[in-house]
């Protein structure tokens, strides 16, 4: 009787040691190969995430955002997308569980990828989203979405004055765009600029630097109007161009350096005059007398500067 019991116990010990040997052998092989998800995990039907997908995603307002979740060995489990900030279930499988129809789960039969697509995302959609698998306990993988407002800007002032016969030079830059724009179009008063109709128009667009330069040679009065640049992935920017005959004070795109220096000098003198006038009013009678020569000098200088700039 005792021998039978010992044989049974020894049999269980040998079976345990055999299974332990198999487990250790498989686990050691996986550790050497650097496999984050060992073969035994796949063999016994446990789902796991493919961590090679991009989990920090930036999108621009109005353009679809996609979060790609790849689950290996899913089996009959379901994949859900959860919005972390309010724990709202957005999708389960390919079904949408929210009234906001901008959210949609994309999945192709036979594929390991479950994609959450957000149509026309807004800055309020930024945050953490979780791809969740219905195992017990559940496993999840977090994704960060940043929705930014990409904007274009035409360098310089919002109003430009060009002397007739000079060239119009406008440079547009797409700021905060996550990728180079596919195109940057130029419009004049709402219509796409026609290169052949007028002639003398050139556009140089550099996608990598997200810039576009519009040059209109020998500006005419008919070139006056509102100019707009529209990158494919940014809000547009506009500038008003005035083509005038003769000189124009301080607002010319070309040749305004001397005019600007005169106005700058006049402003400095006016500020200096104001400072000494205040000092004169607040000082004692003795100090007031000492300030009179300085005030006279500044007043005469300002008058001469104003007279010179108006010529």
UniProtKB/TrEMBL annotation:
Classification via CDD domains: Ig, IgV
Bilayer-spanning residue ranges: none
Pfam families: Ig_3 (PF13927), V-set (PF07686)
Ig-like domain: residues covered: 47-134, 137-240
Superkingdom of the organism of origin: Eukaryota
Biological process terms in GO annotation: synapse organization
Name of the protein: CLUMA_CG012921, isoform A
Organism: Clunio marinus
């Amino acid at each position: 009787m005792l021998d039978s019991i010992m044989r049974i116990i020894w049999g269980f010990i040998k079976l345990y040691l055999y299974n332990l040997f198999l487990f250790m052998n498989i686990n050691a092989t996986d550790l050497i190969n650097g496999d984050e998800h060992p073969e035994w995990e796949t063999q016994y039907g446990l789902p796991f995430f493919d961590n090679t997908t991009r989990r920090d995603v930036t999108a621009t307002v109005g353009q679809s955002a996609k979060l790609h979740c790849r689950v290996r060995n899913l089996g009959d489990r379901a994949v859900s997308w959860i919005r972390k900030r309010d724990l709202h279930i957005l999708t389960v499988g390919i079904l949408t569980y929210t009234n906001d129809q901008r959210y949609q789960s994309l999945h192709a039969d036979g594929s390991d990828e479950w994609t959450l697509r957000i149509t026309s995302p807004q800055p309020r959609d930024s945050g953490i989203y979780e791809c969740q698998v219905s195992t017990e306990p559940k496993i999840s993988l977090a994704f960060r979405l940043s929705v930014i407002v990409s904007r274009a800007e035409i360098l310089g002032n919002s109003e430009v004055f060009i002397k007739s016969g000079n060239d119009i030079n406008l440079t547009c830059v797409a700021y905060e765009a996550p990728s180079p724009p596919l195109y940057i179009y130029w419009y004049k008063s709402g219509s796409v600029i026609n290169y052949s109709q007028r002639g003398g128009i050139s556009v140089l667009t550099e996608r990598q630097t997200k810039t576009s330069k519009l040059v209109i040679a020998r500006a005419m009065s008919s070139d006056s109007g509102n100019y707009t640049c529209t990158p494919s992935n940014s809000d547009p920017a506009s500038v008003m161009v005035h083509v005038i005959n003769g000189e124009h004070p301080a607002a010319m795109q070309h040749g305004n350096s001397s005019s600007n220096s005169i106005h700058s000098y006049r402003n400095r003198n006016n500020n200096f005059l104001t400072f000494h006038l205040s000092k004169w009013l607040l000082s004692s009678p003795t100090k007031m007398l000492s300030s009179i020569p300085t005030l006279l000098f500044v007043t005469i200088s300002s008058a001469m500067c104003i007279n010179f700039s108006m010529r």
